[in-house]
Amino acid sequence: MGAPTMTTGGTGANRPVPEGRRAAVVDCDVHAVLPSARSLLPYLDDYWADQLVAQLAPYYEPGYHPPSSPIAERPEVTPGPDGRAGTAVDALVADVFSDGGPDFAVLNCLYGVQQIHQPRREIAHARALNDWIAREWLDADDRLRASIVVPQGTPDAAAEEIDRCAADGRFAQVLLLGQSELPYGRQINWPIWEAAERHGLPVALHIGGVFRQAPTSVGWPGTYLEWYVGQQSNLEAQLASIVSEGVLQKYPSTRIVVSELGFGWVPPFLWKFDKLWKSYRPDVPWLTERPSDLIRRHVRFTTAPSDGFERPGALDRLVDRLGSEDMLVYSSDYPHRHHSAPREIENGSSDPALIDRIRRTNAFDIYGLSVHSDL
Amino acid sequence: MTRYIVANTTDIPQGERKIVELEGRSVGIFNLDGEYYALLNRCPHAGAPLCEHGTVFGVASADGPDAPIDYERQRSLRCPWHAWEFDIRTGVSFYDPRNARVRKYEVEVVPGSPEDVVDPDGGRQDGPLVLEGYAVSVEGDVVVVDTSRRRPGRTRDQAERRRPAATA
Ligand code: FES
Which residue spans adopt a coiled-coil conformation according to this UniProt entry (chain B) (predicted)? Predict the structure, then answer.
């Protein structure tokens, strides 16, 4: 295994790969699971550690993939010592990097510090979680990268956490959840975009939420089914906000990776956004180009779940309707189970060059991850 | 190919418009603070009577989402159907200048009464006034619309030279 390198600060868009190296195959969405709230004790300061113990260690593992439900784990994954997938680094590494696996995997730890509504507690726990990821995961295997978990309730503190973790060099992006307290385009959230751009880090918008209000656009869903399906429309609202509020003009190097939220809904969304922009352009006079052009340039979507686009020809048709071959990046969403296996997405296209883009070069454009050419 | 007298200046008060028919096409002429603009009365999107029912607004621009919004009044014509906006001076859309545009006509104000300015040798015609049964008995300045197409890259001289051949 050659020493992995990471080029930061670039704006993507088919950046050149360094001499003697090739763009790495990247699995852009892999889940490390915090085994218990107590796992954070070594990483919290005395005050917050004792607070956690005093509160009987409430565990904020979110119900995005309820344990024992079909979506939680694929049957073939290797469980950690507690019987759950994703809780032990050696088991995850063995599964994710098995034969034909990626060169790198980006860990999105979804432990729900964002659901801690006390700002200073959220800040302390986000910090502890990132340190736990760095020590117990990134130190264990140099093919692992991770997303920076940020205290979303306090955007200035989120920016500070981005500054702190970016110095490590192994955090490949910032993690935001699909459902937020205020849409991500709103100016109160700009410190997060500013910090991400400052460090050349993409921002992942991953399925999930802060649960400070109802988690779908219309209210409280009655079932998990409604929650999961409903997150897609939250992402439409987030992208509409980010584009309309001018984040992509203000921070033009911004890259967004929409993760585990599908991509089949994107073409009709872009069409509608463009269409209505023509009628309401005076509301957003700084928006001088079509929303779809901005989204094509700045936003990427992970391939799992592939939602039927793994059927022969379906991916080709979808990419045609997206109007860009640059917008999809490969993910396994390990250990989550969807209706098709992660690499089945490759069946959706008859074009090996497109698959290669999805697995390597599109990811290189946003992360700059490469390996020696002979690997 | 022709310049038509479409109105007496007093027929189109400030901020108002007049719809005329020129060579079988409906055309709207606007008076904005004494500047006259003429556009085809048909939206390139889905054919709405743009000049007849469109609203004159300004144009807004901003260098960034936190920059001041500059606003210039009386610069845009907004379609009554789906609110697309066009530069009232050029017919060009503000969001897609290359592809969406309304045909624009040159307008000038010519001193004198219509009888005085009608040129029997093919220059200015009083066609629309006649077409609309308009009494050509007004006094004062008249508004003249030129229906010839202005193509980029062709000088006025070249256009003049081509004209006899085209009409022959
Ligand atoms: S017809 Fe004019 S905007 Fe649709």
Answer: none
